[in-house]
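Sharing a chain and its predicted structure for anyone who wants a worked example. Both blocks are below, sequence first, tokens second.
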Amino acid sequence: MRVISSRDFNQDVSNAKRIARLEPVFVTDRGKPTHVLMSISAFRQLTGERESIADLLAMPGAVADIDPPVVESWGRIGEIG
């Protein structure tokens, strides 16, 4: 667990995010912990929450490689077009 001041957090959010991928980051205000920054996977593990299909589809590039089938003819059910 890493502890950083709110001033340091504000000056380098990217560094705090990098650290939070590995371990929780406690942000302090006047020496007292006020916030915790952690990766989403650590949060989900902590809460028992799992990714929903909507979360997975919202990920960048998640559906970019999927080519939908092309339907050339719409016939009746059971009919081959």
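Comments welcome. The chain has a mean pLDDT of 83.
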